[in-house]
Amino acid sequence: MRRPIRIGPLLVGLLLSIAVAVEPIGPRAAEAEPATKKRLVVIVGRDSPVTDLSRIELNRMFTGSVVYVAKLRLVPFNFPPASRERTSFDGTMLGMSPAEVGRFWMDRKIRGQSGAPRSLPAAYVVKLVARLPGAIGYVAEDQLTPAVRAIRVGGLAYTDATYPLFLQ
Amino acid sequence: MTEKILAGLLGAFVAGAQGGCALDDADKCGPHMEFSDSQVCTCVENAVEVTGGCEPCAPGDVVDEMNQACVCPAGQTRDGGGTCREVAGLGDPCNGDDLTCDDPLFNRCAVAVDATTGYCTSSCVDDSGCEAAYTCAVWEDEPYCRTFTGVGQACESSDDCAGNDAGFCETLQSHTCQIATCTVGIDECPRDNICCDLSSYGLGTLCSSPEDCPT
Amino acid sequence: MTRSPPLALIGLEALLASLLAGTAAAQPPAPLPQPAVAPSPSPPPPVAADDGLDGLGDLGLEQALPAEDEALTIYGFADVTYMMYFLHDDAAAAALFPKENRFAVGNLNLYARRALSDSWRLLAEVRFLYAPNGATHDDGTIDQTSTNDPADFDRPLNWGGIEIERVYIEYDVHPRVTIQVGSFLTPYGIWNVDHGSPAIIGTSRPYAIGEALFPERQTGLHAYGTLNVGEYTVGYHATLSNGRGPYETFRDLDQNKAVGGRLTLEAPWAGTLKLGASAYGGRFTDRDSDISVIEDGKLVNTTPKGVSYDERAFAADALWTHGRFHLQTEIITRHIAYRNGARGVSGFGEGFAPDSFTYGTYGLGAYRFERYWNITPFIMVDYYRPIASQYLDTIATVAAGLNFRPLPSVVLKAMYGEGWFPGAPDLLADVHLRTMVFQVACIF
């Protein structure tokens, strides 16, 4: 008996071939960098006990895990999804593109898990972090005010030459 | 310390997960059961199906396969203490010639078609007039209490059921001898059973309990 | 009989091999090289706090700074599927499975979530169903649920039902301990937690998962938490529930509580590796009724024993992600031991069901590209050993497909699958069930 032609695997194979032909598989080429770039500074209120957070702690906090420092629950705030600050922070700290971040939070919703940290308009980030205990956010270094304090990231101050967070 | 705890938990996990693998046939069924070739639990000899399992019949009882009940063998009845006792005259061999049924109650000689000898039995109006191992053959012109031989006997083909009233081997599920010579509506079947039309399943007519008979 | 792998499997194996070779050097997006930076200025002197933030209410916040937005959040997901079956009309399988190609609305699930405070949260999920309309029975009959629509001149209307997927309240007792009470998805493996069609890669869950060797959900208490140790995260779950039963969400017919647990480890090994081990033990009881009768002027409990068995289930799972490469696998086992006098009928027309050991496993591999809507080819293999019977020994499936995500909230899938029954005698020996499924799923 003649076996039926299996359209499904043929279609899959054809699409895969096209995808592989046009999609480079490997590390993404680094983008051209300007000579100097603004740093993205992680900030807390001046009275916050937080002075240093590791990259993994920041990653966990901004991907839905709860982080406590000295019994104080840290509450993260994000920039709006399409902002430079947000895409820079997510790309460096979370290792995710905007599309990947969107998928990540959508899938967490379906699992019944917590949603993304609340997003604030840029103008309010510093003001809110300064006002509310436990709040933590990030801003470009030229947006720093005396009302907030920058913390170290993985032991590195934002003034250090090897500080990892930059505005892309 | 942490490593020891984790190692202990892992060991318990693996042992627990694999514990179920050691499940041989003897472990798969409950008391008075055995694991059959059909991959199900069936009652052992002289035990009957009850809700939730099998119950052994009392010594001296036999199994009524059609109704899954413990009954006294043909020719016996249960006395006040529940023990099966011979009933004088009932079941005595007869042939309508030199072997006669002399008991005033069990004065009928039931001889099967193509048989030369039968057994002494009584006339009846319905099943209540017969011992538990007997069925009142109300479809006969002169009803009498009769037995059905071979019902529930294990078989591989109908050759294994030859010579019995249950002359058909049902090989689709139970692999047992069943009565296939009945007529729907007349119900020439053991008590509490009816003649069931299973022709759509390729089985013709079979005696079956009413709840197992497709409507 | 030796069986050659399907063409799709051979082709995908070769392709995945080439992908693996290419991705051996691929890493997750590396941080961009740090440019030369000018020394930053010294911090500005402090100034009077006049932040211009007149009202936190402008932002929907209160002084107490709730950790989550406390507004009631309503969201959900839905999917529509087109299924094609490749069966000859005279094939035995044609009598056992649906024959017609069809569109179907699969899921319409609605969530309600609210952070009642920093520490208290509520989640409820319901699924709206067209069932029981269209439910089929062993004798081939199909149910039709019809009523008159009083808002439309009593014209006929087919009605469906609602399934409560889960509803619980949870409380953070401690930074490492959260307790849920209510009806929750059993925390085992990967697939049961992912749960919804937009979050899973294929169009359907593996057969072994669908057989619910662990109960899909439980009603009771669930405690869970995590412990971070450097870059490692250790997680735990512990459950106490009514166990499995026909009315498990509101009755425990045997008053025998089921216990379960899970341990997880997340490690930054060659990307991210998540390992898990789960266990469950409980008693299932089903009976027709609760009966009390009056005998000699007294109330006598004559409740039947019904069908009852003790069960133990174990599972192990692994999820490995490395850049855009995704690999996951689970293995699940279940042992059932019927209690004396409470053994169920076999379902094959004779005898009783035996004690049994069943197991299932699957493997899923996928790779997400950045182009063409994040096209993700995937392949899944599945093996399941059910309760032994004279008709069936094992079930094996292999599937391959594509997953597209044009938006984070929209998922398109196409999956070709083939299932067969290795070792089955007679009726199912040469049966191959082939399907092609297209699905659109979205989160709203």
Briefly say what this structure is.
The complex is a heterotrimer of chains A (168), B (215) and C (444). Chain B is mainly beta and 215 residues long. Chain B has one helix spanning 2-19; strands at residues 33-35, 41-43, 47-50, 53-56, 62-64, 69-71, 76-78, 84-86, 93-94, 108-110, 118-121, 135-136, 145-146, 168-170, 176-178, 194-197, 205-208.
Secondary-structure element pattern of chain B, one letter each: HEEEEEEEEEEEEEEEEE
Oligomer: heterotrimer
Q: What percentage of amino acids of chain B are in beta strands?
A: 15-25%
Distance between the termini of chain A: 62 Å
User: Total helix count of chain B?
Assistant: 1
Describe the overall structure:
The complex is a heterotrimer of chains A (168), B (215) and C (444). Chain A is 34% helix and 17% strand. Chain A contains 5 helices and 9 strands. Chain A has helices spanning 7-22, 55-61, 84-94, 98-110, 122-131; strands spanning 40-45, 52-53, 68-69, 72-73, 75-78, 118-119, 135-140, 148-150, 152-153. Chain A has a 5-stranded mixed beta sheet. In chain A, strands 2-9 form a two-stranded parallel sheet. Chain A has a two-stranded antiparallel ribbon with strand order 3-4. In chain A, a hairpin with a 2-residue loop joins strand 3 (68-69) and strand 4. Chain A is globular and about 40 Å long. With 215 residues, chain B is mostly beta strands. Chain B has 1 helix and 17 strands. Chain B has one helix at residues 2-19; strands at 33-35, 41-43, 47-50, 53-56, 62-64, 69-71, 76-78, 84-86, 93-94, 108-110, 118-121, 135-136, 145-146, 168-170, 176-178, 194-197, 205-208. A 3-stranded antiparallel beta sheet of chain B has the order 9-11-10, with no helix packed on it. The longest helix of chain B has 18 residues, at 2-19. Chain B is globular and about 85 Å long. The termini of chain B are far apart. By secondary structure, chain C is mostly beta strands. Chain C contains 3 helices and 20 strands. Chain C has helices at residues 7-23, 191-194, 207-210, and strands at residues 73-86, 102-115, 120-129, 146-149, 155-158, 161-174, 177-185, 217-229, 232-241, 258-267, 272-286, 292-295, 298-301, 307-322, 325-338, 356-367, 376-385, 395-407, 410-420, 432-443. The two termini of chain C are 49 Å apart. The model of chain C is unreliable at 1-50 (pLDDT under 50). At the A-C interface, helix 1, helix 2, helix 4 and helix 5 of A face helix 1, strand 1, strand 18, strand 19 and strand 20 of C.
